[in-house]
Every structure is written in C-alpha cells, then in structure tokens.
Amino acid sequence: MRILIVEDDFTSRRLLQKMLSEFGDCDVAVNGKEAVEAFSLAHRDRRPYTLVCLDIMMPEMDGQQVLKTMRQMEKELGLSCKDEVRVIMTTALDSPRDVVEAYYRGGCSEYLVKPIEKKKLVEKLYECKVLP
C-alpha cells in the first residue's frame, strides 16, 4: 500500500509516519501544493496512493482545497468511486462546518481529530476499507 501523509507540523508528520509505516510505504508532503504534486506524479507513474492522511490547516493550499483538487483529478482520469484514493482528514478542527465540508463537498473517507491515537487511526483504516 502507498500512503501519502500531508502535514505541515513536524511532530504530527513523524507520528503519523511511525503509526502507518507498518501498513505500507509512506511519502510525506509538508504543504498542500506538495501534496497535489505528489498525487499527480503518483498517477502519472501509474503508482497511485491507496491512502492519503490530509491535514486541513496548512500553508500554500489548505486540506479542503487539496481534497477537492484530488477528487477533480480523479474525475478527469475517469476513475470510479471504488477506485478513488481513501482520504482521512486529520485536523485539530472539530467544527461541524469543517466536517460537513470535508465529507459532503470534498468527498473524504474519514475524519480524525487530533491528537491522533493509533487505535483510532487503525479503526479508520478498516472503516474506509484500506485494510481488509
């Protein structure tokens, strides 16, 4: 499984890498612009990501916009819903507005509020069918 971790905070990024490295190869992006570039390159190389853990508050481009951009790219590639990357939003924001934006306008698979615990993260991996 290929995983993209998009997180501008060093500590959060390292923590997610440590938690997810047992499930697959982890790449990192430190801002939204890097995330979109990595996502695009992965598709161009025919090695798309299975999972993206995406922070909402980031420089360059916020996570909500990154998610919408990724979904638009998938649509342009002709991918069906079942072939879309699974996206877990990881954020300190627990507002209903952000949750609605992520699920209904962005198409995220799951939503986790920081601090992230490994047990909850693994549960989300099963819920969004990244793990069998």
CATH T-level topology: Rossmann fold
Name of the CATH superfamily = Response regulator
Distance between the termini: 12 Å
Q: Please trace the helix and strand order, writing H or E for each element.
A: EHEHEHEHEH
The CATH architecture: 3-Layer(aba) Sandwich
Uncertain spans, ≥5 residues at pLDDT below 50?
none
Class derived from helix and strand content: alpha/beta
Helix content: 40-55%
Global mean pLDDT: 93
| % residues in beta strands | 15-25%
- Rg value: 13 Å
Would you count the extended β strands for me?
Answer: 5
Number of helices: 5
Name the quaternary structure. Answer: single chain
- Domain count: the total is 1
Q: What's the CATH class, please?
A: Alpha Beta
